Amino acid sequence: MRIVLGVGGGIAAYKVASLLRLFTEAGHHVTVIPTEAATRFVGTATWEALSGNPVSNSVFDDVHQVNHVRLGHEADLVVIAPATADLLAKAATGQAGDLLTNTLLMAHGPVLFAPAMHTEMWQHPATRANVETLRGRGAAVLEPASGRLTGSDSGPGRLPEPDAIFDAAMALVHGQTDFQLPLAGKTVTISAGGTREPLDPVRFLGNRSSGKQGVALAVAARNAGATVRLLAAHMEVPPPPGVEVVNVETALQLREAALAAAADSDVVIMSAAVADFRPAEISDTKIKKRDDTADPVITLVRNPDILQELVERRNQGATGPAADSQLIVGFAAETGDKHGDVRAYAEAKLQRKGCDLLVVNHVGSDKVFGKDTNSVVILARSGSEPQEASGTKADVSAAIISRIGFELNQVSPRA
Ligand code: CTP
Q1: What's residue 3's pLDDT?
Q2: Whole-structure pTM value
Q3: What is the pLDDT of residue 323?
Q4: Of the candidates 332, 227, 322, which has an alpha carbon nearest to the alpha carbon of residue 274?
Q5: N or C, which end of the chain is more exposed by having fewer CB within 10 Å?
Q6: Does the CB atom of residue 330 touch ligand 1 within 6 A?
Q7: Does residue 38 come out as left (phi exceeding 0), alpha (psi in the -120 to 50 range) or beta?
């Protein structure tokens, strides 16, 4: 496929180098057209080296090839990233002062804008009107992601992650017109990894969760356009870029972080393996083995059930603005035993915990923990048919996130 990648003059231009790599690695022929301002952030040499094609934004270079007409005509897809307020305005009013704006006027194929700017600029009536004009003409304009912006400010205005722009671009080319990302504008909190409950300054009670599933969910939610907050207990993998990370160690710390995060979350996914019990006492000093005293006995006390508490608070309307529509997703790791099989235990857990969806893993010594693949069943409290998903943890996460997107679009309140 022939792609024109127009780069606007914003700091997020540096992230577009990764987007270019995604396009070229997928085998596409990419012509990069940076605006004059974009080259002050990332130089022409970078775009030429990464695309393998000459780069210019002048209608007076290679005039014999009539580039200002040819590039737009030949492109199967035009992607503008970052689409600055200035570029959106120029595109909406049909200006043609350089090669990129000429190309936009000549484009025959789909056009995707991935905006990035400060929140006030994005929310300004002039920008809103320009976005509406472009959408009205059939162009696709992504919602920017929310989060930390260039200065000390934060809010909607971040460039969506390169993976997300890539996915949206491919969806657009395949004729998906209602391609707005399924979780655009939503805030999703995901707990991941395993809690650790200290016994003394050097020892803890832990579990074998690697955090891979939670991290894969964070990537899938981020790529679906959500603002993602990852509550990271102990994990063997790094958190992904583009998500806010809150580090926690114990179940009590996770509870505090989860209740705080739930206040402005549209979705809470409890994929962390939370210790059900913690040592009743934590020794300030290392517990020593001694010959003159009996071997120590560890007394455990129950940890609060965070998932259940989140559901109770949501149902009481105590979690904040999203209370009446907040979706809460639990995970269940079950082995089954002589009293019941995996499914029976999972159904009982769904009823007991009251969450909207329960993702059920069948675990055993060789299954799930630390592995890259997974096989789950998604049970819904609404009673709809159980849904199976299997494959890599990324595949399973994409299925879970897509199901969450579907559930959020069912309008009725859940409380
Ligand atoms: N969970 C939680 N708080 C706890 C324990 C678990 O929020 N103290 C959450 C987990 O994050 C997961 C779900 O509850 O989403 C199921 O956890 P699991 O350990 O499988 O269930 P338990 O309640 O411990 O039930 P059982 O003892 O039957 O395994």
Answers
A1: 97
A2: 0.71
A3: 52
A4: 332
A5: C
A6: yes
A7: alpha
Q: Which is nearest to 9 in space by CA: 40, 43, 32?
A: 40
Is 361 a pocket residue for ligand 1 (Cβ < 6 Å)? no
Q: Are residues 141 and 241 in the same domain?
A: no
Q: Is 303 in the pocket of ligand 1 (CB under 6 A)?
A: yes
CA dist 282 → 204, 279, 296, 299, 301 (Å) = 10, 7, 13, 10, 12
Smallest CA separation from ligand 1 atom 4, residue: 305
Pair (207, 345) in one structural domain: yes
- For β-strands 387-392 and 373-380, DSSP reports them as antiparallel
Verify that 117 and 197 share a domain, yes or no: no
10-residue stretch averages of pLDDT, the chain, 415 residues long: 97 96 96 97 96 91 83 93 98 96 94 94 94 91 82 81 90 73 88 97 95 94 89 96 93 98 96 97 92 88 97 84 78 86 90 95 64 86 88 90 88 45
> Ligand 1 centroid to 199 CA: how many Å?
21
CATH classification at residue 70: 3.40.50.1950
CB under 8 Å to 137, separation ≥6 — which residues?
A: none
Determine, yes or no, domain membership for 182: no
One domain, residues 287 and 384: yes
One-letter amino acid of 237: V
pLDDT on residue 364: 65
Nearest Cα neighbor of 116 from 107, 105, 108, 127 is 127
Residue nearest to atom 20 of ligand 1 (CA): 332
* Residues 43 and 146 placed together within one structural domain of the fold: yes
Instruction: Identify the helix (H) or strand (E) that includes residue 338.
Output: none
